[in-house]
Amino acid sequence: MERLICMGCGAEIQTENPAAAGYAPKSALERETVICKRCFRLKHYNEVQEVDYEDDDFLEMLHQISDTDSLVVQLVDIFDFNGSLIPGLNRLTGNNPVILVGNKTDILPKSVSRNKMEKWLRREANQAGIEVADVYLISASKNEGIDALAEAIDHHRQGKDVFVVGTTNVGKSTLINGLISRSAGVDDAITTSYFPGTTLGFIDIPLDDTSSLYDTPGVIQRHQLAHYVSDKDLKLITPQKEIKPKTYQLNEEQTLFFGGLARMDFEKGDHSSFVCYLSNRIPIHRTKMDNADHLTETKIGDMLVPPDEDSLKKMPEWERQTFRIPEGKHDVVISGLGWIMIPEGDVTLHIHAPKKVKVSIRESLI
Ligand code: GDP
Fold it and tell me: What tens digit of pLDDT does each residue of 350-360 get?
């Protein structure tokens, strides 16, 4: 039988296993352009279906890039940098040059300097062992910075192929669609070819007669909060517009709840202000630390939302992590939820968040 590839995601079409990648009902095969059920639902109902790709499959695929002579474009979500950076990328992609692209600039408060952000991205990438040839900031959905990026890609690729890589949810499809519509042929520009030796497909978008831009499947990072909430909550926690920072003057032994998705206990330190950068749609609730355990046990999913009922079924138990914040301004980052700017001084905090969701400290971005 002829191999069919899904036009949407590049997976090989199969009609046997509805839970696996590339599933389409037999009736769908008669259509002129075949897309898998997952892409179909995404396109028509904006609904995301889980597929049981093993994480290793993705990494295995990316590893094939190391055998090519190409340019790699790694897209990250600047709202969730740690959650969206692919660790050990250089090992996966070999000696090929990497352009790091920070997406979703539209949600950053205007007070954030671009220059500082670019430097910060470069530094963080270096610390993660990724050497970058260039850094760009874009908003794929607002179509900002796409022209400059496209020119940079052309400049750096020197006639070679381009692989666009990223974790799920960073805006890769949005960017690729933007690049395609910019480069004329619109939808017709996509052809689907099968990348040799892979079990999953890369989507091939021809750049010229001899080279292509490849869209790769999104790498799943288990510490992204996105994997533990319902589709409805995912829309709530993902900022859609410029974040309006919310400032709280706290005394020690006070707690902030971020919906019912995480909480911060300010255990020790001088009275000072904490600035929260989260989706505007996550309500923040302030209470006494004394009261916080009781609220955690009784009010999550009730007074403290999101999570909704579906998220509650998926969400791992909370885990408490203690941080003693070093000198200088720092952010506590809860991967996928946002960050809190912590005042300078000797501050001790406990962060309670679903197990697996990464919580980290960084030098303040703002
Ligand atoms: P993919 O999983 O990497 O292919 O990501 P998608 O392109 O499907 O985008 C994931 C989510 O991020 C969607 O809700 C998009 O609407 C949103 N998104 C993509 N680009 C941007 C952007 O530039 N700004 C904002 N605010 N959201 C974006």
Answer: 999 999 898 98
Distance 141 CA to ligand 1 centre (A): 7
Return the number of other C-beta atoms located less than 10 Å from residue 32's C-beta: 4
- Burial track 313-349 (b if 16+ CB lie within 10 A, e otherwise): eebeebeeeebebeeeebbbbbbbbbbbbbbeeebeb
Residue 175 Cα: closest atom of ligand 1: 7
354 in helix, strand or coil? strand
144 lines ligand 1 (CB under 6 A): no
Instruction: Say if residues 246 and 256 touch (Cβ distance below 8 Å).
Output: no
Two tokens at 273?
Answer: 């202000």
Ligand 1 atom with the smallest distance to the CA of 239 is 26
Q: Is any atom of ligand 1 closer than 6 Å to the C-beta of 83?
A: no
Reduced to 3 states (helix: H, G, I; strand: E, B; else coil), residue 124 is helix
Ligand 1 within 6 A of 177 CB? Answer: no
Question: CATH assignment of 53-221?
Answer: 3.40.50.300
**CATH 3.40.50.300 in the chain, residue ranges:** 53-221
Phi-psi region of 277 (alpha: psi -120 to 50; beta: other; left: phi over 0): beta
Query: Is residue 181 very low, low, confident or very high in pLDDT (cuts 50, 70, 90)?
Result: confident
Return the pLDDT at 1: 53
Q: Which atom of ligand 1 is nearest to the CA of 140?
A: 23
- Alpha-carbon span 243 to 237, nearest angstrom: 11
Model confidence, pTM? 0.80
- Ligand 1 in reach of 90 Cβ (< 6 A): no
